[in-house]
Amino acid sequence: QERIVVEVSQSEDSSNHKLILDRQ
Question: Would you say which domain of life the source belongs to (predicted)?
Answer without folding.
Answer: Eukaryota
